[in-house]
Write a structure and sequence with these properties.
Helices cover 82% and strands 0% of the residues. The chain has 73 residues and is mainly alpha-helical. It is built from 3 helices and no strands. Helix 1 crosses helix 2.
């Protein structure tokens, strides 16, 4: 859990630093720092639901059964 928490703190620091470097505005950078993880959390919820759907499970299984082999150059 300590590793996860420290990664979360690092992620927020990087998000703030990049946002501030791009905008030069502390308020906007702060908003981005907290809004982005919230949006990612919601997106992850729907991604998991799609990933676990029977349709995508069948598609992934078909990829394992018949892997795509790149053509020789």
């Amino acid at each position: 859990m300590v590793k996860t928490a420290s990664f979360g703190v690092m992620h927020l620091g990087i998000a703030f630093g990049v946002s501030y470097a791009l905008t030069g505005n502390v308020a906007i950078a702060g908003a981005i720092t907290f809004v982005e993880p919230l949006v990612n959390t919601v997106a992850h919820y729907f991604f998991d639901k799609a990933w676990d759907s029977p349709r995508w499970k069948a598609w992934r299984a078909s990829r394992r059964a018949h892997p795509v082999v790149p053509a020789a150059a």
